[in-house]
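W.,

You were right to be curious about this one. When I first looked at the sequence I had no strong expectations either way, so I just let the prediction run and decided to look at it fresh. Below is the sequence, 150 residues in total, followed by the output.
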Amino acid sequence: MNVFNKVTLESLKKNRTRTIVTIIGIPLGVTTINGVAAMPNFGDIGNIMFNLDFKGVFTASGLILVFVCFFGDFFSTLGTVLAVANRANMLDENGNLPGIERPFLVDAVGTCFGALTGNTTITTFVESTSGVEAGGRCSSLSRMPRPVRR
């Protein structure tokens, strides 16, 4: 049985009363289903994407903000990359990670792309260590349900 079907069936069994009431309410018109997802309105996307204010960056408060954001992201990425590499036994005898510039490049590109598109910036997550402990070589394993990892 598919893991996702199993999880859905378990959820329905746990919420049996709520499920029955909802199913009865649909034909009676009490419960309406408006859909699971809808298309977003892209009409005002120009207010968010690529709407940069370079004049505000080169002020004293703007430079302080860039400084704070850079160092926060830098040390967060450094600590996470070294912790995950340590857990995966990828550090050399001096405790250095060979090719450490690659995770920083990915983080920098993701941060810049997120900022340009008006989204939150990406970052590395220390939760990746749980995926490494389970035998994974990327962080997506830590987000998989436990039955999938076995």
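Here's what jumped out at me. The CA atoms of residues 78 and 104 lie 8 Å apart. And, maybe more interesting for your project: The longest helix spans residues 60-87.

Coffee later to discuss?

I.
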